[in-house]
Design a protein that fits this description.
Blueprint lengths: L1 H15 L10 E3 L2 E2 L4 H8 L3 H18 L2 E3 L8 E3 L7 E3 L1 H25 L4 H4 L5 H5 L21 E8 L5 E7 L6 H14 L1 H7 L7 H11 L10 E4 L8 H11 L2 E3 L4 E4 L2 E6 L2 E4 L2 E4 L3 H4 L15 H6 L4 E3 L16 H9 L6 E2 L3 E2 L3 H9 L4 E5 L8 E3 L5 H13 L4 E5 L5 E6 L2 E10 L1 E4 L3 E3 L4 E4 L15 E3 L1 E3 L3
Parallel strand pairs: 5-26, 7-15, 8-9, 8-13, 13-14
Antiparallel strand pairs: 1-2, 3-4, 6-7, 6-22, 10-11, 11-12, 16-19, 17-18, 17-19, 20-21, 21-24, 22-23, 24-25
Helix pairs in contact: 3-7, 4-13
Length: 488
């Protein structure tokens, strides 16, 4: 009986799994699997449908017991949600990963050089490679950082870059996340759950490990400590329990064995940062901050912020504390500046980009703005400083009223918007009720920059769980799945 159920599941999946022009992670064509997915498909096909559901429920229960949640703002029915998880892993070959790793290493290296340059010599601006107005009009540009020496010239120590696949299977960069990139805790907990749910399958695939991430992160933070602090005290600064990523803050602090603090737990005396403890004040040397620039020091940035630490920027400027990432890194992940990253790579490294960008229209250019407004039904429009799927128009799925509203927004504030073609990026198999169905996915690998650049082999695969949706963000109904990078 169980064998008949398994055969029926496989046959039903093959028939109902609809392919189109989007790249499919599992199928080359109807009934033809990518070689590295054959073992996975064979394994799940050998399991009765009720066994797959039982394992799915076990995974959901594991997430619930661990308190793996995220916060959705603006929902009256409640904000705290269990993070949606798809049972089937996304598999990436060693050859594919080699190119991703090379491209991300190149990208973070060039962006660090760019940040150092614009806050010091400004060569790239004088040479006209990047327009001054793009940099100086960016809301994340911090004039306070001009001429300030950053430890080891590392502005971006922690990065999460979003990748998608074109229809030909090529990975390209969708955007960079350089300020306070989130989601790595879900990558780690996904893996832990998957090894428990599919232990035999996991061992058979020879998957590269990711469990070392937190120790690599700790080593990266330690390498950035101020001179003369061989045993630095490192803390993770969180906005607090009401932040959407608080689970992640607590998880990472616990895994690294460092203190999780809020602004009220820190105090600055004589340009030195201290942590309040039951035994008195203890000096802090490195802060892994999950608080945006605007809110981190009311004396230097927003005076109404209750989240930060008064005097923190002066302590930073004096070289007595290091922050990861540095102040002002947000200028390099502004969506308008994204269009210039290939030129930035060529300028500093004299290399062609390993990973391409998605074609991007800048609304500050009159011809591109007119083209966008005339074709809003075909394009995706994004606010340059937003994340989480907010401030965004997906043209083919929009109404005439929404397009009219965005046209007015663009005309009123061109600097605040960019547009890109609507890309039918790759889809991966997901277990939807009792069958396999394709869903759009992206990939957020995590990059660390300390003594050297390290790209953790995997990342967070985010899934647009709603049929036909192109939005993978958890705040917009998306979920995630484990990402397996093969050793060979």
């Amino acid at each position: 009986m169980a064998q008949n159920q398994s055969m029926q599941f496989a046959q039903t999946s093959l028939k109902s799994y609809l392919l189109d022009y989007a790249y499919d992670e599992m199928f080359i064509a109807e009934g033809e699997l990518h070689r590295h997915y054959e073992l996975l498909f064979g394994h799940i096909s050998s399991l009765p449908a009720d066994e797959l559901q039982r394992r799915k429920q076990a995974a959901d229960l594991s997430f619930l017991n661990q308190g793996i949640t995220f916060t959705v703002y603006g929902r009256q029915e409640g904000t705290e949600k269990i993070f949606p998880y798809d049972l089937l892993p996304r598999i990436i070959t060693a050859a594919e990963w080699e190119k991703v790793e090379s491209g991300l290493t190149q990208r973070i290296t060039a962006l660090n050089l760019f940040l150092k340059d614009i806050y010091n010599e400004g060569r790239i601006l004088r040479d006209g490679v990047v327009p001054r107005e793009i940099v100086f009009s960016c809301r994340q540009y911090r004039r306070q950082m001009i001429g300030l020496q950053v430890p080891r010239n590392i502005y971006i120590a922690i990065c999460g870059t979003d990748l998608i696949r074109f229809e030909n299977g090529e990975f390209v960069v969708l955007e960079d996340n350089l300020r306070v990139p989130s989601g790595v805790s879900y990558m780690l907990t996904n893996r832990r759950v998957m090894k428990r749910i599919f232990p035999q399958l996991f061992r058979s695939y020879n998957v590269r490990p990711i469990e070392q991430y937190t120790q690599l992160l700790l080593g990266t933070l330690r390498s950035l400590a101020p001179e003369g602090r061989p045993e630095p005290n490192i803390v993770l600064l969180s906005p607090g329990v009401f932040n959407s990523a608080y689970f992640e803050h607590a998880y990472l602090a616990r895994q690294m064995g460092i203190e999780l603090v809020e602004g009220r737990d820190l105090v600055v005396h004589d340009n030195i940062v201290y942590m309040r403890t039951t035994s008195g004040l203890r000096r802090v040397d490195v802060i892994y901050r999950r608080v945006d620039d605007d809110f981190i020091d009311p004396l230097a940035f927003r005076p109404d912020s209750m989240l930060g630490v008064a005097g923190l920027f002066n302590a930073y400027r004096a070289g007595n504390v290091t922050l990861a990432n540095a102040f002002g890194t947000g200028v390099a992940d502004d969506k308008a500046l994204y269009a210039y990253v290939p030129d930035i790579i060529r300028y500093y490294l004299a290399e062609e980009p390993v990973l391409k960008n998605v074609e991007t229209y800048l609304m500050t250019r009159p011809s591109e703005r007119q083209h966008t407004i005339a074709n809003l039904d075909k394009l995706v429009v994004k606010a340059v400083g937003e994340s989480g799927g907010y401030g965004m128009l997906i043209g083919p799925q929009s109404t005439a009223a929404q397009r009219e509203e965005f046209a007015a927004r663009i005309e009123a504030d061109p600097r605040n918007y960019i547009a890109q073609p609507t890309i039918s990026f790759s889809r991966a198999p997901c277990l939807i009720e009792d069958s396999l169905e394709p869903r759009h996915v992206d990939l957020r690998p995590y990059v660390l920059y300390g003594d050297r650049v390290t790209v953790v082999p995997g990342g967070l695969t985010r899934v647009a769980l709603e049929r036909g949706s192109l939005v993978v963000n958890s705040s917009q109904g998306g979920g995630s799945k484990d990402t397996w990078v093969l050793s060979q």
